[in-house]
Amino acid sequence: MSKSDRNTGYYRKSQVTKPLKDLKEKQWKDFKWILNHAFQNSQFYKNKMKEANLTPEDISDKEKISKLPLITMEEFLNAQRENPPWGGLLMLPIEKIGTILVSIIDNKPFLIPTSLKEATGSGNASSKALYSAGLRKADIIDIAVALAAGGARGFGLYQAILTFGCCAVPLGSTGHKSQIETIKQLGINGIIGDIMFFQTLTETCEKEGINPKDLKIDVGCVVGSPLGDEIRKELINKWDMVLRGLFVHDEVGVVGRECPQMNGFHLSEELLVEILDTSSLEPVNVGEEGEIVVTIPFRNTLPYIRFRLGARGSINEEVCECGRTSPRLVNYPRRLD
Ligand SMILES: [Zn+2]
Q: Measured in angstroms, how far is the CA atom of residue 124 from the centroid of ligand 1?
């Protein structure tokens, strides 16, 4: 497959090219659904609404979303720890949960239940991201990120690969010579990893006298810290591959993905994303920078409603030449602290 084939086309074309107005309408409809679902099924969320003196009926239009309380990861953690196992968070009966992932945070478990709806939603968002990054059916991909330890991150990508039609090889992130040998032996042609992994793999190649280009990697997807221009240039030079970034949050999964234009991260269509002023916590105007807050309507097990990502960025709603209509997160997402 030529590089240009990896720069064209869409995964789920009708979703990714939907007019922005229609996209926003769908997001608002899904938001109302998850708000009602959480209010009815999560004692934790019901209590939060009660403290704010609100019911779902009070949020009669999109402008009123900002009245709703924000949620932090710390609150989720404390709820589970103070009132185990779920701390009033779980919104589905246990028989509807397919998998429970465990994230170890400060040496203590945080439980992440996964329902069928979530697996589908997360798989869909991740598949769109992989396609946008240049991966295609029948690619063989080294997943160099932990599958479960990073919460939703690795697992979501793994689920996506199964529905996407690729072959996933979870090799971990050692970057040792044995990983290079496996890449050669299997004919692996795609890698998902963080910048540090790509750099380690490059160093191992250099130490072993291997030209990275001889490994014939077509596509690299960078997760974790954003890809700076210099490092991108250097890696593309050394590997001769398509190299794009995905913004994948440990708990949320794929928030955004770069397209061939590489001018920001197209937000996952499934998410309702808000940018808030960092001191007043009120919404900023489109284009202004602030804190990123996300609602995930397909996560029907835990209430990810106005969830604070702990990162900042701004949104660009201008039309992108790639044809994808979802707004782009620009000014590379950066940690708040
Ligand atoms: Zn684009």
A: 18
**Mean pLDDT per 10-residue run, the chain (337 residues)?**
87 96 98 98 98 97 96 96 97 92 85 89 90 94 73 67 85 91 97 94 97 97 88 96 91 91 95 97 96 96 96 95 96 68
Question: H-type helices in 187-305, by residue range?
Answer: 195-207, 229-239
Structural contact between residues 83 and 42, judged by C-beta atoms closer than 8 angstroms? no
Domain map (residue ranges) of the chain = 4-331
Q: How far is residue 106's CA from residue 318's CA, in Å, rounded to a whole number?
A: 41
Distance in Å, CA 319 to ligand 1 centroid? 8
- Domain formed by 4-331, architecture: 3-Layer(aba) Sandwich (3.40)
CA of 186 from ligand 1 middle (Å) equals 32
90-95: which pairs have CB atoms within 8 A and are 24 or more residues apart? Answer: 90/41, 90/42, 90/301, 90/302, 91/37, 91/38, 91/41, 91/42, 91/45, 91/300, 91/301, 91/302, 91/303, 92/41, 92/300, 92/301
